[in-house]
Amino acid sequence: MKGYSIRSPQDWELDDRSAGCTRNTPLYCNSNNSRAGGETDKFHPMTSVQLPADARNVATATTADECSFACLGSCSCTAYSYDQGACSVWHDKLLNVRQQGNSVLHLRLAAKEVPSSKTNRRGLIIGAVVGASTAALGLIFLLMIWMRKNKQYGDDAQGGMGIIAFRYADLQSATKKFSEKLGAGSFGSVFKGSLSDSTAIAVKRLDGVRQGEKQFRAEVSSTGVVQHVNLVKLIGFCCQGDRRLLVYEYMPNGSLDHHLFQSNVMVLDWTTKYKIALGVARVLAYLHSSCRDCIIHCDIKPENILLDGSFTPKVADFGMAKLLGRDFSQVVTTMRGTIGYLAPEWISRTSITSKVDVYSYGMVLLEIVSGSRKSSKQSSSRDGAHEGYFPVRVAHSLVDGDVASLVDAKLLGEANLEEVERVCKVACWCIQDDEFDRPTMSEVVQFLECLSEVETPPVPRLLQAIAGQPNLKIM
Predict the structure, then answer these.
(1) Cβ neighbour number for residue 92 with a 10 Å cutoff
(2) Which of 284, 288, 265 is nearest to 276 (CA)?
(3) Would residue 148 count as lying in a domain?
(4) Where is the domain boundary, 132, 149, 174?
(5) Does residue 381 contact residue 391 with C-beta atoms inside 8 Å?
(6) pLDDT (tens digit per residue) in 293-312
(7) Residue limits of the Protein kinase domain (predicted)?
(8) Neighbouring residues of 346: CB distance < 8 A, sequence distance ≥ 6
(9) Quick check: 13 pLDDT over 90?
């Protein structure tokens, strides 16, 4: 059988075939290298066979592609067959596959075992949709298929989430033909909508087949498989033809950047700002340390921090997210993120770790304190130097013991200066040039919860160059 070899040829010659066969190449899903890169598994059609016993019927898979997704969604699935509208899958061992019959068995093999072909439509579809991220992505697609007819599935390993498979027509109706636009980004636009039970939703319509597909997979494989109070909730999705849409809970207070940088919105008091800083730290610590895979967001900035009705922060927009297996400490990937929040290792094109999120978070902390873009022009310090770059002012103000001058003027002096100083010190640790000098997000949470004292941070070399004082130390 293609992709397999007899485990014990000697026993086989003696008509003892109990040892069976073994794969020539491990499946991508089960391989230790699966998270380091490579291709997804593919299927080899075996025609004119008698199907093996112990098949499991997947009633909700109503097309051949959905049937293949159902098999790819489980690492133990070894084959599938789709015939006359019925989907059957086999797990683990395949017993008594005979080359006599009129059925087609699609045997799951490692990609290198299946020759690529431009005419292999199913292989292209599987490659485009499943991609090469992790086994978790396959799992979420399987869960999506299971609930396609009954709309929801039960609790998962991370805590119960019901994800709805929407038809495109349903979302057209819910958004009144995408008439109320909430915003737009490089990957598409977001529209407000309402479900039949009056639940307010935000629908992200992804643009571009290739890039939209990539972001769709990234968002589903991250927000679709985890749950946290400070993570925006994925309600559902639409994967119909070339259309890719994601449906999230609606955040009535918009994104953090509106409240920090715009003058016509409600000013956040210091207590709320500190609550937001802590909430974002907690969810990043969770994504980095507590999930099955380390999820690196790669684009932490105020625009991607949403606020619910009680101003609880919800991290959103995982279109650039990178999943890193626990067996790996770093990953090489293309540059992604937003200028001004990029860690130095992005620029040097070295491998990246979760510390890129720590750096971006540090820059966000500085903007939470100041209430303005950290790179925008600021009023000069008392000696008139270092005007124009807020991180430099933070370093000098910590030395001078004058953190009050750093606080957003819109707060009219109403701020806990001990907390302000703590936040500024944490921020300066987070934006260190060397990733090994930055704290983990779990350590950041301990600092902000006052469970650990923040030691004296050195000024990053970049800031030293801007300040022109290489020996400057925050005391």
Answers:
(1) 9
(2) 284
(3) no
(4) 132
(5) no
(6) 788 888 899 999 999 999 99
(7) 176-451
(8) 335, 336, 337, 352, 356
(9) no
Burial 333-349 (b: 16+ CB within 10 A, else e): beebbbeebbbbbbeee
Is the per-residue pLDDT at 56 higher than 70? Answer: yes
Does the residue 27 lie in any domain? yes
Can you read off the two tokens belonging to residue 47? 């025609």
What are the pLDDT digits (tens) for 394-449?
877 887 888 898 999 899 889 999 999 999 999 999 999 889 999 999 999 999 99
60 burial (CB, 10 Å; 0-12 / 13-18 / 19+) is: middle
- CATH of residue 183's domain is 3.30.200.20
Out of 45-49, 143-147, 265-269, which region has the weakest mean confidence (pLDDT)? 143-147
What pLDDT, on a 0 to 100 scale, did the predictor assign at position 143?
47
Question: What pLDDT, on a 0 to 100 scale, did the predictor assign at position 71?
Answer: 84
Distance CA(304)–CA(254), nearest Å, equals: 10
Range of the domain at 376: 256-467
**Total count of domains within the chain:** 3
How far is CA 405 from each of CA 199, 388, 411, 429, 447, rounded to the nearest angstrom? Answer: 43, 15, 12, 20, 22
Residues 196, 267, single domain; the answer is no
Closest CA to 218 of 156, 295, 271: 295
Q: Which of 53, 77, 49, 211 is nearest to 141 (CA)?
A: 77
What is the distance between the alpha carbons of residues 172 and 356, in angstroms, rounded to a whole number? Answer: 37
CB of 204 closer than 8 Å to CB of 248: yes
d(CA 361, CA 345): 15
**471: which residues sit within 8 A by CB, 6+ positions away?**
none
Q: Which of 293, 299, 357, 408 is catalytic?
A: 299
As a whole-number percent, the residues of the chain with pLDDT over 70 amount to: 71
For 430, the token pair is 């987070």
- Do 229 and 278 fall within a single domain? no
Residues flagged as binding site? 204
Asked if 237 and 319 sit in the same domain, the reply is no
Residues 347, 341: contact at Cβ < 8 Å? Answer: no
Binding positions for ATP are 204
Active site residue 299: yes
Instruction: Record the tokens describing residue 145, joined without a space.
Output: 């298929």
> Is residue 151 one of the residues assigned to a domain?
no
pTM more than 0.90? no
Mean pLDDT, rounded, of the chain: 77
Question: Token digits for 380?
Answer: 């000069």
Q: Which of 92-96, 118-122, 128-132, 231-235 holds the top average pLDDT?
A: 231-235
